Amino acid sequence: MKALKWIIGVVLLILVGFVFYLTVVFDPNDFKPQIIAAVEKQTGRTLAIDQDLSWTFFPTIGIKAGGISLSNPKNFSEKQMVAVNEIVANVDLLPLLSKQVKISQLKLDGLQLNLETTKDGRTSFEGLMASDEGQGGKTPADASSQRGNIMLEGLNIGGIDISNAQVKLLDSQQATENVFTLESLTVGALALDSFAPITYKFNGKMPDMTVSSEGQGQLKISSDLKQISLKDFTIHNNLAGVNLPKGELKADLTTNIQLNTGTQTVAMVLNKLALADINGSGELNLSYGSKVPQVNATLALGTVDLDKLMPAAEANTTEQPAAATSVAATSVEPDLNGMKAVNMTLRLTIASLKAAGVTTDNWVINTKLHNGLLEVQKLTADLYQGSLTASAKVDGRNKLASYSFDSELKQVNLRPLLKDAADVDMLAGTANINAKGSGRSLIPENIKKNLDVSGNFNIADGALYGVNIPLMIRNAQAKLKGDLSSQSGEEEKTDFTSLTGSFTVKDGLANNPDLLMSSPLIRLSGAGGANLLQETLDYRLKTSLVSTLKGQGGKTTDQLAGVEIPLLISGTFAKPKYSLDTDALFKNKLKDETEKVKDKLKDSLLKKLGGG
């Protein structure tokens, strides 16, 4: 026993002497010049440690440091890349002997990170990124595998406190400055395989928007350090900017998140989403182990009013500079390189959707994004007592994007759809429309120019608004009799039982070569088209009476029965104009009367010659 006591006493004496040497004789600040010189030699940067380093060894091993900064490369506008006001870390010494980490305090205050991109493309990380050779030939996967082998018997953190951390992003190429500030991040007492409370406050300032965010939840780290869980994580976001509806937008969500570094996956359950007036829920699964991450997501939304989410119109729309800027902005092809950065499948359902004044219900959209090719494999929706079915592709693999689509409208009530979508009140009926097309470029004007479409339509039990063809014919009949007065007071509408035809769109021109309209009174046929760029109409049609005009304000008469009556449609989409080609009408009538006279002369001649 005495020998054992002597051994323990000697060990304790050695430990006390060692601690005395490190704390009294050995001063870590003596090595500050060597550390600063080594950093400058390796990186060409200036490292500053303004405050003295202080150590603790028993019962905790820890360090306290402050006034640390690392400079940016020369000729950068921000002199410092990294600056830290204070770092405090204390780890209990004795638990380390049994592979247990017990941190009594972990604190970081006043972190300042200035990341800059110069006009010539240089960044703040220049000269800091380690090469493959510097890693001894090991790949990131090898390093990850080695980290995965770390095992701890226990981890206890008394608390984590990060405050006043700021990241400033300066881009001289884009002339932008974004500042993000983590006001606070606190984690309560944390142990492996146990949940600990976590809270944060964050704000950001961007050129056209500011954002503030705060959240709270429960954090858990697994004993093998491979799984991190966030439970009941509630986030409240507030955004403000001129391009937001009414200048501001609120977005709140409650979620559970599971990160697994071993399988390199993230699973997220979105229990609740509230974006402005939109509510929803969903799931997201991310696999980031491959070169291109894979995302699989489902999202269910309630009522969505996109019109409310559009920015308010500017008060003064006559300012030429603003208009010029808007035109310039829409003349640039969107950069779709981001479509190659991730592969994704998404199933989206929307209970009700309003966009550009059009209200639709029961949306189901299945999409797939792979290697820059976006496919809308299925799109269905209910609209205006009918349905929409469509599929589409957008190819972002080339600099100039291309697209294609195939769509079908069934039993759609056409009049309210046109009024809501384009404020056009010219056509009513139950419509069936098929359209298939393709195009290149996503600039709005180029879409009209490059669109190549073919399709057909069939509209039943409808009406043309803005024109009363029977009334126009009656007025024409009156003129033939010498009555130059015109009837009026009736509704400007022409009823029909069917309106059919096919159409093509190419080079900004829509062509309809076989329009046919039938009704109990008239038959209308012909061809025409529309200029999509100028939004104008040009139709030349032929109208003929079936028998009489009785039934739509007319009296029984057959004076023009069988005579083709030319009808012209011109004007714009919003204000079409209808007119009879009177000259052609008189020519046709004269031709018809001439033929009748010829027939009478033939009959009379035959009778005189004894042939009758």
Automatic annotation (TrEMBL):
Residues that span the membrane, as ranges: 7-26
UniProt xrefs under InterPro entries: AsmA (IPR007844), AsmA-related (IPR052894)
Protein name, UniProt field: AsmA family protein
Keyword Transferase: no
Keyword vocabulary terms for this entry: Membrane, Transmembrane, Transmembrane helix
Keyword Transmembrane helix: yes
Source domain of life: Bacteria
AsmA domain location: 2-176, 200-515
Species of provenance: Shewanella yunxiaonensis
